[in-house]
């Protein structure tokens, strides 16, 4: 078992023939990911990286049974690509694109609410289930198969955490990069819940950062779930200056849960094993699994 | 992108939001001309001189003054322009004032009392929807209101499929205790404000205060407007509104070099790929007994040119006693980054602070050899903790 993506996922790439799409699609194929085709409007009927290109997502669903997509479409068109995928019946929509206008994401996230799909990202490194499917831009070799699930807002910090876990002789069930934008499809809580409910996952690493309340929500859910699977947490940005990225009125909504200190406090009170140093994630996971 | 009050008000006004009228002036002479023009257009005899800087709490620092005649306009504008305005939101040195807004006096006496409200429009991250947040307690620091009297803060969340509904605009006016003409004016004000927010692709509007005048008009007396940078591509006319004088010079320079850089007060510089890892690296520096001197995300391509640019930016800060480079090589290969560091170091020639390079991921071993054999005064590390220990070591 694993979550979100596995060897049977039928994956398409939106923005397939662009430079980003081409580069990462070939990396994913090399990893062994089951890429069944791609979508670039106007290039339908062509073959790219030995896979069929479709004009629309719906065609890809009908003709090759696509159920998962990874989006590399430029920011101005990315929200539309997300909605197209949801409309076509894609179940897992992984959006790598960084820099989508917030107004576009408000519309897209509202549009997909009543569709039977899950959005991961945007502005995320993607999802990887080692030895089965790499649906993202992460370096595949860092992630060895095992029993630890990872949830993270950031790209390179996810690789760092995975590397530390692997160096403890452990491995990863699925690593989920949920993205660092203000509006993301899958929250920390939802990703942690998926992993806690996965029979193969025995422990979870949860990496957050300053801003918003996602980690506090996840921590509260974890406590109320009564799960006995250990969670190790880290929040980046203890030394980040206040008010640099958040608007004045925004700080009021986030309230006291916004800072790294406050988030860590809530996580500790909910039974999460919080580390203050990012160098101790791997050590802590080995300790709680020992 | 943050805007000045006068720029924000121009945007509001372009969408039919009533504003306190004003004219921006760069010097005392322009201020007097602006005051004369406002008098002829609005009949106002008093004027408010308002410093235009990107910081709240301007009144508390002496950046907002009432002038009762043209002589006072000239004097006060002359005092405020050029001053270093210190407010609760600026650093201790304050912010230099380059221009003032000469605004009409809107607190004139009349049939009813004036009252001040607070209103902002922003994203509710928890629901992924915009909301209007408002309060009867205008003119005050809203965080104080939230702490002391949270029941006086109201919100209206907007359904994106239909936008702000008339019943919501009415509820705002009711909750603010308005009736008669003022009630009607408020519903119009709120609707226009929300339209302006959406059409301008803003990520924050904060109007504090919203004023009910003595003749029951509703208007924005101040405006804090932040435009979503990611949406600027579809608002070419807003691009020129950026005032780089309001930003840190070194951050502007770093931005021009394509580096995401935030200047901080510490003694250990850092250069990292990825924002999350960059924040974690700052935290690690602190754990090792130092203080981060900056946040710097070099992005996906850490080649010699980029590393050199980053070195130059970091070394402009005389407080920097060491530099930690932390790169997790995924798609970017560590040996290429290492070569970039070596080339940049040789090109610079005069780096006199210790450098610790931690490269992990693709080809990390080759990278370490390259660094160790370079003959340069650069320490290499592969593990995160090892990097922290070396920082501690060089700080003594």
Descriptive overview:
- The complex is a heterodimer of chains A (290) and B (396).
- Chain A has a seven-stranded mixed beta sheet with strand order 3-4-2-1-5-6-7, sandwiched between helices.
- Residues 246-254 of chain A have low confidence and may be disordered.
- Helix content of chain A is 36%, strand content 22%.
- Chain A has 290 residues and is an alpha/beta fold.
- In chain A, strand 3 and strand 4 form a beta hairpin.
- Chain A is globular.
- In chain A, helix 3 runs parallel beside helix 4 (102-111) and helix 7 runs parallel beside helix 9.
- In chain B, strand 16 (322-329), helix 11 (334-348) and strand 17 (355-361) form a beta-alpha-beta unit.
- The model of chain B has no long low-confidence stretch (mean pLDDT 93).
- Chain B has 396 residues and is an alpha+beta fold.
- In chain B, the strands form five sheets. In chain B, strands 7, 8, 9, 10, 11 and 12 form a six-stranded antiparallel beta sheet that branches. Chain B has a four-stranded antiparallel beta sheet with strand order 1-6-2-3, with helices on one face. A four-stranded parallel beta sheet of chain B has the order 14-16-17-18, sandwiched between helices.
- In chain B, helix 5 packs across helix 6, helix 10 packs across helix 11 (334-348) and helix 11 runs parallel beside helix 12.
- Helix content of chain B is 37%, strand content 24%.
- Chain B is built from 13 helices and 18 strands.
- The longest helix of chain B has 20 residues, at 180-199.
- Chains A and B meet through helix 4, helix 5 and helix 8 of A and strand 7, strand 8, helix 4, strand 10 and helix 9 of B.
Q: Average pLDDT of chain B, to the nearest integer?
A: 93
Poorly predicted regions of chain B: none
Major β-sheet annotation of chain B? 6 strands, antiparallel
Biggest interface reads:
A-B, 63 and 63 residues
Q: How many runs of DSSP E, i.e. beta strands of chain A?
A: 14
Strand content of chain A: 15-25%
What's the overall average pLDDT of chain A, rounded? 93
Main β-sheet of chain A, in a few words?
7 strands, mixed
Strand content of chain B: 15-25%
The rounded distance between the terminal residues' Cα atoms of chain A is: 22 Å
């Amino acid at each position: 078992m694993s979550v979100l993506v596995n060897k049977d996922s039928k994956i398409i790439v939106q923005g397939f023939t662009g430079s980003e799409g081409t580069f990462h699609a070939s990396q994913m194929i090399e990893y062994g990911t089951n890429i069944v085709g791609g979508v670039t409007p106007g290039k339908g009927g062509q073959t790219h990286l030995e896979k069929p290109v479709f004009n629309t997502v719906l065609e890809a669903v009908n003709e090759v049974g696509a159920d998962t997509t990874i989006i590399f479409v430029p920011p101005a068109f990315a929200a539309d690509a997300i909605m197209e995928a949801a409309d076509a019946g894609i179940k897992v929509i992984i959006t790598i694109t960084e820099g989508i206008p917030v107004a576009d994401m408000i519309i897209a996230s509202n549009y997909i609410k009543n569709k039977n799909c899950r959005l991961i990202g945007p502005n995320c490194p993607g999802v990887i289930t080692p030895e089965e499917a790499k649906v993202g831009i992460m370096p595949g070799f860092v992630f060895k198969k095992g029993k630890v699930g990872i949830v993270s807002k950031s790209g390179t910090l996810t690789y760092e955490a995975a590397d530390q876990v692997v160096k403890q002789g452990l491995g990863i069930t699925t690593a989920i990069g949920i993205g660092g934008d203000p509006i993301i499809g899958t929250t920390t809580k939802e990703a942690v819940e998926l992993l806690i409910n996965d029979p193969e996952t025995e422990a979870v690493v949860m990496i957050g950062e300053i801003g918003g309340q996602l980690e506090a929500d996840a921590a509260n859910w974890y406590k109320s779930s009564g799960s006995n699977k250990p969670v190790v947490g880290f929040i980046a940005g203890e030394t980040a200056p206040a008010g640099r990225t958040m608007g004045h009125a925004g700080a009021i909504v986030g309230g006291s849960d916004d800072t790294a200190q406050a988030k860590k406090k809530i996580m500790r009170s909910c039974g999460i094993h919080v580390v203050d140093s990012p160098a101790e994630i791997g050590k802590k996971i080995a300790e709680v699994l020992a | 992108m943050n805007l000045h009050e006068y720029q924000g008000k121009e945007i509001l006004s372009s969408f039919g939001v009533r504003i306190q009228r004003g004219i921006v002036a760069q010097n005392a002479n322009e201020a007097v001309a602006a005051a004369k023009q406002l008098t002829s257009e609005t009949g106002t005899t008093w004027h408010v001189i308002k410093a235009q800087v990107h910081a709240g709490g301007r009144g508390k620092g002496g950046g907002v003054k009432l002038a009762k005649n043209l002589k006072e306009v000239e004097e006060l504008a002359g005092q405020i322009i050029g001053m270093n305005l210190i407010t609760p939101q600026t650093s201790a040195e304050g912010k230099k004032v380059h221009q003032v807004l000469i605004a009409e006096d809107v607190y004139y006496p009349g049939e009813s009392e004036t009252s001040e409200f607070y209103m902002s429009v922003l994203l509710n991250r928890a629901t992924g929807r915009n909301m209007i947040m408002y309060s009867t307690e205008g003119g005050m620091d809203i965080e104080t209101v939230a702490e002391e009297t949270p029941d006086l803060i109201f919100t209206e969340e907007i359904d994106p499929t239909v936008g702000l509904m008339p019943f919501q605009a009415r509820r705002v006016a009711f909750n603010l205790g308005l009736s008669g003409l003022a009630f009607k004016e408020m519903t119009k004000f709120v609707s226009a404000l929300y339209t302006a927010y959406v059409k301008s692709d803003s990520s924050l509007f904060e109007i504090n205060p919203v004023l009910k005048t003595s003749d029951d008009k509703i208007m924005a007396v101040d405006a804090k407007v932040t435009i979503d940078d990611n949406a600027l591509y579809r608002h070419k006319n807003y691009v020129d509104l950026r005032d780089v004088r309001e930003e840190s010079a070194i951050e502007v320079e770093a931005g021009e070099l394509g580096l995401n850089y935030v200047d901080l007060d510490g003694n250990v510089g850092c250069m990292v790929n990825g924002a999350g890892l960059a924040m974690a690296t700052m935290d690690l520096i602190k754990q090792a007994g130092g203080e981060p001197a900056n946040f710097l995300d070099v992005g996906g391509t850490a080649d010699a040119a980029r590393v050199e640019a980053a070195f130059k930016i970091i070394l402009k800060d005389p407080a920097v006693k060491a530099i930690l480079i932390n790169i997790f090589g995924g798609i970017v290969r560590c040996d290429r980054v290492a070569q970039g560091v070596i080339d940049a170091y040789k090109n610079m020639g005069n780096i006199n602070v210790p450098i610790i390079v931690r490269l992990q991921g693709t080809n990390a071993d080759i990278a370490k050899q390259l660094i160790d054999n370079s003959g340069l005064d650069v320490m290499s590390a592969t593990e995160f903790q090892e990097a922290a220990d070396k920082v501690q070591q060089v700080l003594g």
